[in-house]
Amino acid sequence: MATFNFELVTPERLVLSGEAQQVVVPGAEGDFAVLAGHAPFISTLRPGILDVTLPQGRQQLLVKKGVAEADPTRLTVLAQTAVPLEELQGARLASELQLAEAQVAEAKDDQSRMMADTLLDVLKRLQLKAA
C-alpha cells in the first residue's frame, strides 16, 4: 500500500511523524479517511479517535480540537490535545470524564455544548470498552 507523510502536532510537541498508509480523522462534518493521493482538503476536528495505520502497525489517539490539512503527499493534523488510547485508562480516563462533564455543564453556547457532549460520548464509549 502506498504511503504519505503524516504529522500530528500539539502545542506541546510533535506527537507522530512519519509515513502512514491511512489515517481516519474525526472531522467536524464526520470521519474521513486519508490515503496517498488524497485531494487537497482542510477540515476542523471534532473530539474523537484519530486512527493511524502505519507500515509497522496501527495507533489510535483521542484528539479534541484542531485542524487537519491534506494534499496528495501529506496530512498534517494540528490538535489541541492528542492522547494515545492505551494511556486513557483507569484514573486518567476517570479524570478526563470528569473534565468533560464539567465542560458540558459550563458550556455557554450551542457549539461549545455540542463539542463537550461529543467528547463526553467518546470518553464514555472508551470507558465501556475498558470495562
How does the overall form come out from the CA principal axes? globular
What is the count of β-strands?
A: 10
| Element-by-element helix/strand order | EEEEEEEEEEHH
Regions with little confidence, pLDDT below 50 for 5+ residues: none
| Structural class label | alpha+beta
**Beginning-to-end CA distance, first to last residue:** 35 Å
| Top-tier CATH class of the largest domain | Mainly Beta
Main sheet record: 5 strands, mixed
| Strand order, sheet with most strands | 2-1-9-8-5
Q: How is the CATH topology of the largest domain named? A: ATP Synthase, domain 1
Q: What would you give as the CATH superfamily of the largest domain?
A: F0F1 ATP synthase delta/epsilon subunit, N-terminal
Radius of gyration over alpha carbons?
Answer: 15 Å
Residue share in helix: 25-40%
Helix count equals 2
How many domains? 2
CATH architecture of the largest domain: Sandwich
Report mean pLDDT, rounded to a whole number: 93
Portion in beta strands: 35-45%
Summary of the model, kept short:
This protein is α+β, with helices and mostly antiparallel strands. 29% of the residues lie in helices and 44% in strands. Helix 1 packs antiparallel against helix 2.
Task: Tell me what you see in this structure.
With 131 residues, the protein is an alpha+beta fold. It has 2 domains: 4-84, F0F1 ATP synthase delta/epsilon subunit, N-terminal (ATP Synthase, domain 1, Sandwich); 88-130. Helices cover 29% and strands 44% of the residues. Strands 2-1-9-8-5 form a 5-stranded mixed β-sheet, with no helix packed on it. A 5-stranded antiparallel β-sheet has the order 4-3-6-7-10. A hairpin with a 2-residue loop joins strand 8 and strand 9. Helix 1 (90-106) packs antiparallel against helix 2. The longest helix is centred in the last third of the chain and has 21 residues, at 110-130. The chain is globular, with a radius of gyration of 15 Å. The mean pLDDT is 93.
